[in-house]
Specification:
Shape: globular
CATH architecture of the largest domain: Up-down Bundle
Bound molecules: 2-acetamido-2-deoxy-beta-D-glucopyranose
Strand order of the largest sheet: 1-6-4
CATH topology of the largest domain: Butyryl-CoA Dehydrogenase, subunit A, domain 3
Distance between the termini: 23 Å
Number of strands: 6
Number of domains: 2
Length: about 325
């Protein structure tokens, strides 16, 4: 596994393994096939959605909510499995820690998915995308935590399930991106070139609404707070201090943008669940690096910090 460093969720989005799930044979309707074309795991997407009963001409919202329901139901199973790993881990610090981390991040994932599901019908599609992206990072984090204790059949099976949840969340995210950009017009849905392309509307389109623009990232110069190595001259010393400054319960969906300047930050960043609208911007992969290793001193645990750091890096 790629060490105790991480470069915020982007790296994780790029490095997740594809699951060892056999390609299912399904007869997905043309509409489902069309919607699934935009996902990274289109066969799993088709087989997942084909298990649902839809009205004759389902809307994209109905498809998306079905994708979320599938994820939510597997998450419930995974949570049960991880609880029993935890129960069986008394006496091993490593196992207890890994299972605890995994449990916490998957609960977060589940929470985000329910937020996505409830915010979509009211048109909060940008929030939905951000939350879904977080839900996806959380499942990767659980997977990485379990990888350190993969020495029983129980853990191996749980990892397979968590992997399949990552796939469902990834697919749902791609669909949510398209739903945000193109709405119900599934014929115009397309595969985002990169996560970043998919994530932000072009600056200056005013936010809200469906602009159809699929590029652009938040502007560093308009960051709410800046973090730099050593602090000073208007910037904070730690990412945690910046997170602590963010509003609780968000501000009408307005993002709180934290710009983290180039440097290696040795800290474990904890983002409470009620701080919902955080965006992390860095100076680029390999330039802004967060390592949590100093905080816990156990291999693998550093990835936990990625669970709590969500948003976009440029
Ligand atoms: C999603 O929301 C719909 C209502 O819009 C509700 O019927 C459904 O149970 C919810 N599903 C999940 C997984 O929360
Ligand atoms: C977990 O361990 C099992 C048994 O050693 C192995 O087959 C599997 O590939 C491992 N999974 C991962 C994701 O490392
Ligand atoms: C889909 O795969 C591409 C290429 O690996 C990756 O950049 C992107 O983040 C993935 N999207 C999702 C939603 O997982
Ligand atoms: C627990 O983690 C420590 C520190 O990383 C490692 O040296 C040790 O081998 C692990 N113990 C078990 C039982 O896996």
């Amino acid at each position: 596994m790629s060490s105790s460093f991480f470069f915020l969720p982007f790296l994780f989005l790029l490095t997740v393994s594809s699951a060892a799930i056999p390609p299912p044979t399904t007869t997905a309707t043309p509409l489902i096939q069309q919607a699934c074309k935009v996902t990274n795991f289109s066969q799993q997407c088709e087989s997942t959605l084909s298990q649902f009963k839809f009205p004759p001409n389902p809307t994209s919202l109905q498809l998306l909510q079905a994708a979320l329901a599938a994820s939510s139901s597997k998450l419930a199973t995974a949570l049960t499995m991880i609880k029993s790993i935890l129960d069986a881990s008394a006496g091993s610090k490593n196992r207890t820690l890994a299972a605890t981390i995994c449990l916490e991040v998957l609960e977060n994932s589940n929470y985000r998915i329910s937020l996505v599901n409830s915010s979509l019908p009211s048109g909060k599609t940008k929030d939905a995308r951000a939350w879904l992206s977080a839900a996806l990072s959380y499942t990767y984090d659980c997977w990485y935590a379990l990888k350190n204790i993969n020495d029983t059949k129980q853990v191996g099976e749980t990892m397979l399930l968590v992997d399949s949840i990552s796939i469902l969340n990834s697919n749902a995210l791609s669909m949510a991106f398209n739903y945000d950009a193109f709405g119900n017009n599934i014929a115009s849905w397309k595969l985002p070139k990169t996560e970043r392309d998919g994530f932000w509307e072009r600056p200056g389109t005013g936010g809200g609404g469906r602009s159809g623009a699929i590029t652009g990232i938040p502007d560093k110069s308009k960051a709410d707070v800046t973090v730099c190595k050593g602090g000073g001259s208007g910037c904070l010393k730690t990412i945690q201090e910046a997170v602590n400054k963010a509003r609780d319960n968000g501000g009408n969906g307005k993002k709180f943008v934290i710009y983290i300047k180039e440097g290696v930050y040795e800290e474990t960043v904890r983002v409470p669940l009620d701080k919902r609208d955080l965006v992390f911007l860095g100076d680029g992969i390999g330039k802004t690096v967060i390592t949590g290793s100093a905080s816990v001193g156990q291999p693998g645990v550093s990835t936990y910090t990625s669970a709590t750091v969500e948003g976009a890096m440029e």
